[in-house]
Amino acid sequence: MATRSVVRGLRRQDLTWGYAFLAPALIILTVFLVVPIVMALWVSFREWTGLQPLGESTFVGLANYRAILLDDTVRRTDFARAIRNTLYYVLTVVPLQTILALSLAVIVNQPRLPGRSFFRTAYYFPAISSSVAISLIFLFLYQKGGLINYILTLITLGHWSNPDWLTNSNGTIHNLLGIFGITANSVPALADAQFMGLSLWEWISGPSVAMTSIIMLNIWTTIGTMMLIFLAALQDIPTFVYEAAALDGASAWQMFTKITVPLLRPTTFFVVTIGLIGTFQVFDQIFVMAPGERTTLSLAYMVYRTAFRNASMGEGTAIAFLLFIIIFAFTLLQRRLTSDRATD
Q: How far lies 63's CA from each of 51, 81, 314, 317, 330, in Å?
């Protein structure tokens, strides 16, 4: 009995010290994460401009969410545009940056590659540069007299090279369909049917020319980080696996598809997950390159515009929580589709 009491006392002592060591981190997380989230959720149910004290705000219940999701107003239409633009951005950037990052990682992982250290540094350099500075550089490249428009003019695509090409409201899918004479008038069923204030024809517009330019910028700046993650995972794959496959007569492509890709599934799952979260929150590039444009309006930029420029903190925080729900849903979906295979 004495031994059992001593063991219980030691366990209680260990538990006490464990909570004591956890307390600073728990306090910091509570003060700087949990409390702000709870307060933001509380603000989303109130009408508050952010200019007067929070205590003078008015409780409006679900009115902010109803104005965004249900009421037939410009706010709902803009929210639908922000969802459309963000979805096209996510569905374009995440696959391309994952594929390109994996390809670059495989290339720079070759032991006989000349200048391997230089290429690793060069590919990663954009990721550590200021996103605002890079956005300004790309904005200069996209200007009427910039390098991009100059090259487009040389290859006889001058109709793309005009002072308003960054604000072209046509989506890339609409532009491609227009080559074959397919317009909104050709498909009245899509033009007449509406969802959240946008016609189905507008939903399938594809990313605008301006959004496409931002997509290219984001891919260029993020593949370096994703490449390093893949590179670390590649170096953890035992070399004897490839040696055994080579003895069996496997080609380089077979080793890549049958060994490398399956063994990188956990890493791919991680890269896609952080890619989804990051792209859904795109803000700085849009703020610098095309602020306020409906063709580039993202959910994160709409949060900023609604809360700070329109002085509607209640609606802004409501949009932020809707964005959180969307990110959470996509993360769960991606986890459901890939996690089982990733843990094999």
A: 20, 20, 9, 13, 26
Q: What is the pTM of this model?
A: 0.84
Asked whether the predicted pLDDT for residue 25 surpasses 80, the reply is: yes
**What's 297's DSSP letter?**
-
User: What number of CA atoms fall less than 13 Å from residue 211's CA on the CB side?
Assistant: 30
Residue 188 CA to residue 229 CA, distance in Å, equals 47
- In our burial notation (b when 16+ CB lie closer than 10 A, e otherwise), range 79-99 reads bbbbbbbbbbbbebbbebbbe
pLDDT at 6 over 90: no
Instruction: Provide the token pair at 201.
Output: 């024809």
Burial of 5 (0-12, 13-18, 19+ CB in 10 A): exposed
Could you tell me which residues are beta bridge partners of residue 190? none
69 Cβ contact list (under 8 Å, min separation 6): 76, 79, 196, 322
Structure tokens at 307: 């809360």
Instruction: Determine the Cα–Cα distance for residues 131 and 129; give it in Å rounded to an integer.
Output: 6
pLDDT reading at 158 higher than 60? no
Nearest-angstrom CA–CA distance, 7 and 1: 10
Strands 46-47 and 58-59: antiparallel
Asked if residues 210 and 169 have their Cβ atoms less than 8 Å apart, the reply is no
Q: Which two tokens stand for residue 341?
A: 């295979």
Each residue of 89-101: pLDDT tens digit? 999 999 999 999 9
Q: Which two tokens stand for residue 229?
A: 């993650």
By CB neighbour count within 10 A (0-12 exposed, 13-18 middle, 19+ buried), where does 279 fall?
Answer: buried
Strand stretches in the chain, DSSP E: 46-47, 58-59, 194-195, 198-199
